[in-house]
What we know:
Blueprint: H1 2-19, E1 32-42, E2 49-56, H2 58-61, E3 76-83, H3 86-92, H4 94-97, E4 100-102, E5 108-111, H5 113-118, H6 124-129, E6 138-142, H7 146-151, H8 160-169, H9 182-189, E7 196-206, E8 209-221, E9 224-229, H10 231-241, E10 248-252, E11 259-276, E12 279-295, H11 304-332, H12 339-346, H13 348-354, H14 358-361, E13 366-377
Parallel strand pairs: 1-4, 1-5, 5-6, 6-7, 12-13
Antiparallel strand pairs: 1-2, 2-3, 7-8, 8-9, 10-11, 11-12
Amino acid sequence: MILYKKIYVFILCFIMLVALSGCLGGREINDLEIVIGMGIDKDKDTGDILLTAQIVNEKEAGGASGEGGGGGGKAYWNVNSIGKSIFDAARQITHKTGNRLFVSHNQVVIFGHDVAAEGLQKYIDFFLRAHEMRPTTLILVAEGRASDIMDAKPETERFPAMNITKLVKTYGFTSHLYKVNMKDFATCLMSGTSATFAPLVTVSQDRENKDVFVPGMAVFKNGKMVGKLNHDEVRGVLWVLGKVESGVVIVPSPDGKGKAVLEIVNAKSKVKPEIKDGRIIFHIKIEEELSLSEQTTRENLATVPGFGKVQEAAGKVVRQEIMAAFERSKELRLDIFGFGEMLHKKYKNEWKIMEHNWDDIYPTIELDIHVDSRIVSNDLLRRPASPDEGGE
Length: 392
């Protein structure tokens, strides 16, 4: 019995010795450059890949206390290199950093306009294959050069890449865009009919300050950027897809002397395709709940007739945004709503005939839009904060 106990203790000590000795294949943090953002452009001289990596400057970023290193410099370092491919450029960058890039903490990849116009399909392959790269890394497209976006330092954030990530992730407040990651983008590329999107980012110059702005979404067909949608057009798409989370709807007041500002509290959609007498019709029903958040008229809107007129006006705004997106999609001859997939699910046999000519058929489809808008709250005020007209 004593012998068994000794053997057990010996085995336990051996396991602990191996377990606590560290990872055999581990790498010291000092031998890595932590990347939080990457930009992909075409080099103007050679046409090769220009990779910009945003690396954490450990001395200026500070330690666990979160305080800076006292040098007064930037908390990041934008370093670039040129290569025949993204992987080649990433390895070439070690000639400047002295260490390998560590991309497990990478937040965002920005592709320049020239790269996006050429086609992203061959460029995202590297990011999907890389073991350390997260498939949830956000993807964006620059209106110009990705390297310019990486250089735009915000006033309230120490790292430009982190600021861009925050801008995209707060899309729910307006529903004027939505985030797209590498995995989502690659999945959409495999669809033969639906469009692929990515947030569009640009730099606006205000005197000495450079601000990053997201003006809409870039639209892709077969991996190539073919156009863009503005904020209203993007929300038009999101109404149909049932992805509107919040936002603001502004309508004229019934008396025509001001405006009613409404917050979107809840929204959902239902889309039913129909083939009737050779026509393809998509019946779209939108249900939205609104809150009266502000008004610029002295008229008391919190009445049954007042709410009725405001709700009707709000429904018109939703319909206008959907139709704006639809008209834009017909110009691009591109199914940005995914109507083809919906048609495929309900009419499998008919879809086999239409599938190969969907780009030509799509502009001929019809939309039947019904919007049910309801004001469910007027926040803290029952009446506008203005004197009665009778008291004047």
